[in-house]
Amino acid sequence: MALPKLNETNWYEVEVPSTKQLVKYRPFLVKEQKQLLIAAETEDQRVIVNSILDTINVCIQEDFEVRTLTSFDTDYLFSRIRGKSVGETSEIIIKCESCEHSNEVKVNIMDSTIKGEMKEGTIQLTPEISVEMVYPSYMDLFKRDLFDEEGNPRGAHAVDMIASCIKAVITEEERIDLKNESKEEIDGFIDSLNSEQFERISGFIQNMPKLVYDAEFVCENCEKENKLTLEGIGNFF
Fold this sequence. Notes:
Elements: E1 12-15, E2 22-25, H1 30-42, H2 45-59, H3 71-86, E3 89-95, E4 102-108, E5 113-115, E6 121-124, E7 130-133, H4 138-143, H5 158-165, E8 166-170, E9 175-177, H6 183-191, H7 195-206, E10 210-218, E11 225-231
Helix pairs in contact: 1-2, 2-3, 5-6
């Protein structure tokens, strides 16, 4: 006689921040949690992100390509899945801004939100040339080598961040999709920008949405009231 399988039908609904698409998701199960724990033990950002993407893929009911999700979509969806799987609150360690004492702070993951202006579209660089901008996925960031050999985030070069957000260059004659161009060609195009054009594109990156949580706590050591903003999924777990 086959043993019954539990928790296969507990579905919830969430809105994908960048597209406003409603999708159904379920909590991750023990088999998926095991893979997440194994990934976390490697302390390798590439392995961890891939494990998170795999988890989202099996927990989302709708059929869409998870690896094309923006980085903030990924963070947001995983925060919701994680909240329904192992609890909405998480104990994290935060240093006091005054005395740097490490405090254990309880945060409600479901209170995290997406902060930043959603502004996908085109940026006019000259009367004849514009660029089509998109928010990068984690896979885009990996492709541009914004993580070191061990998969940890490195100080992102401005050219690499810009390249990860440009989908196409549009001229009067054609639309040039950057996925068909070499890294050298793309870098050369970005290097040819003047300071004003560079600032227009940089503004898009600086305002890129992020998963944030506004944390408040009183330091148990010096009793100073702390208020700070946590950004990205890595700060919550």
